Automatic annotation (TrEMBL):
The EC number(s) this enzyme carries: 1.2.1.3
Active-site residues from the entry: E250
Domain Aldehyde dehydrogenase positions: 19-473
Keywords: NAD, Oxidoreductase
Family recorded in the similarity comment: Belongs to the aldehyde dehydrogenase family.
GO molecular function: aldehyde dehydrogenase (NAD+) activity
UniProt feature coiled coil, ranges: none
Record note on quaternary structure: Homotetramer.
InterPro entries: Ald_DH/histidinol_DH, Ald_DH_C, Ald_DH_CS_GLU, Ald_DH_N, Aldehyde_DH_dom, ALDH7A1-like
Protein name: aldehyde dehydrogenase (NAD(+))
Organism whose genome encodes this protein: Oleiharenicola lentus
CDD domains: ALDH_F7_AASADH (cd07130)
């Protein structure tokens, strides 16, 4: 099998680091060999990205938006093929693989419109003959560290916004999904050549943690956007903060759905099923816990177990499959270790948790206590912890009583309950949903969470401001020089 050589891409392809063998989680077959970037390769890449920034920042924002629009069009033409590669490399069912590419297309559309709306403010000045305003300037090279579970969408969220803001990007993808990264950057290279712009605005360095460390410590990279585990994000935050850089962190989740007595039970059941078992539980927004009112607990959980028994688990490329494999054997071992800990504490496995061979498992439903360490920790696998509550305040307290704060949901037809959930006393998460699940966010809203989730925001709303620097401007168009606060100095 031919070895791809994209350890570094900054207008030129190369790489002199170790070779990664990429095996598909679907059947364990070798689907590619990738040569990684060495520290010297990284140095060459970041220099090229910094040089490309000099010209890119001067291009009018709508012209930058045109490049992103063209990239979105290229994705439309290859949606099925790139979605298939996501499935082969990450183990997603085709609907989710293509859905991830659709997210890329959507953010390109959003960023194209944004390129004509990078607006500041006009501010009233207290001094006569003066005008104040606020404007936004490009930052420079933006580092992007992404995780295996969304191997292309998260890069697009960051790179599309960064590009229209006038930044160049340097991407370190997960070593578990290098092939999709290569495909995305190859496509970007093609579009850049068609648009007569430097392809180094979209740079790539495939490598292990060493490359991430270099990126985090590099003063030429004013912003590092990192998606992944809390452990990884904490390290990035510490290193970047030490040099007074910025970090945009989208880290772990421990997301809960509250099911109230008035909830539409069928609606809630569907939401829990997709939220907990979709992507084999490998989303940061995966539903990890359900908090069900005691009056409906027995019936709801019985229905959930029945639905889980009917979930088709297997090869994600086979029609009808809804749950594919975990990413690797390490993930399988982590799931089994978590279930063993639950059992040791007296928890009860109501369904699933079997290892079916290879990287396949059956999604598990487990009765557990919210306070147990294993429940507090995010196990990146399809384990759903179920528990009960008596009052809405108790339910919200349970929902919030974990270190993470990404996504949350409540199913209710009681207006007072839903408003309480959305109030300052309610969910402490960055995402709070009513009568929809914890997964499946649209790109129009800012995506991210609080506490150990990192506090960053990606994608829609005003998340673009993270990729720019704010500048306050005062213009004196008078023939006098009054000072603020009425201060007189030397006259």
């Amino acid at each position: 099998m031919k070895t791809a050589n994209p350890g570094v891409f900054a207008g030129e392809w190369g790489g002199s680091g170790p070779v990664i063998d990429k095996f598909s989680p679907i059947d364990g077959s070798l689907i590619g060999r990738v040569r990684t970037a060495s520290p010297a390769d990284y140095e060459r890449t970041v220099k090229a990205a910094a040089e490309a920034f000099i010209d890119w920042r001067d291009l009018p924002a709508p012209k930058r938006g045109e490049v992103i629009r063209r990239y979105g069009e290229a994705l439309r033409g290859l949606k099925r093929e790139l979605g298939r590669l996501v499935s082969l490399e990450a183990g997603k069912i085709p609907a989710e693989g293509e859905g991830e590419v659709q997210e890329m297309i959507d953010i390109c559309d959003f960023a194209t419109g944004l390129s004509r709306q990078l607006h500041g403010l006009t501010i009233a000045s207290e001094r006569p003959g003066h005008r104040m305003l606020e404007q936004w300037q490009p930052l420079g090279v933006v580092g992007i560290i992404s995780a295996f579970n969304f191997p292309v969408a998260v890069w697009a969220w960051n790179s599309a916004l960064a590009a229209v803001c006038g930044d160049t990007t340097l991407w370190k993808p997960s070593e578990k999904t290098p092939l999709t990264a290569i495909a995305c950057i190859r496509l970007a290279e093609m579009v850049c050549h068609e648009c007569d712009v430097n392809p180094a605005i979209f740079s790539l360095a495939v490598g292990a943690a060493e490359i991430g460390e270099l990126l985090a410590a590099d003063t030429r990279v004013p912003l590092v956007s990192a998606t992944g585990s809390t452990r990884m994000g904490r390290r990035v935050a510490e290193v970047v903060a030490h040099r007074f850089g910025r970090s945009l962190l989208e880290l772990g989740g421990n997301n809960a759905i509250i099911v109230t007595p008035s909830a539409d039970q069928k609606l809630a059941l569907r939401a829990v099923l997709f939220g907990a078992a979709g992507t084999a539980g490998q989303r940061c927004t995966t539903t990890r816990r359900i908090i069900v009112h005691k009056s409906v607990y027995k019936a709801f959980v019985a229905s959930l177990v029945t639905a889980y028994r009917q979930l088709p688990v297997g090869n994600p490329l086979k029609p009808g499959t809804l749950v594919g494999p975990l990413i690797d054997e390490t993930a399988v071992a982590a799931m089994q270790a978590a279930l063993d800990e639950v059992k040791a504490r007296g928890g009860r496995v109501l369904h699933g948790g079997e290892h079916l061979g290879g990287t396949y498992v059956t999604p598990a439903i487990v009765e557990a206590e919210n306070s147990w360490p294993v429940v507090q920790y995010e196990t990146f696998a399809p384990i759903l912890y179920v528990m009960t509550y008596k009052t809405i305040d108790e339910a919200i307290t349970l929902q919030n009583a974990v270190p993470q704060g990404l996504s949350s949901a409540i199913f209710t037809t009681d207006l007072r309950e839903s408003e309480h959930f959305l109030s300052a006393r309610g969910s402490d998460c960055g995402i709070a949903n009513v009568n929809i699940g914890t997964s499946g966010a649209e790109i129009g809203g800012a995506f991210g969470g609080e506490k150990e989730t990192g506090g960053g925001r990606e994608s829609g709303s005003d998340a673009w401001k993270a990729y720019m620097r704010r500048q306050t401007v005062t213009i004196n168009y008078s023939d006098d020089l009054p000072l603020a606060q009425g201060i007189r100095f030397g006259d």
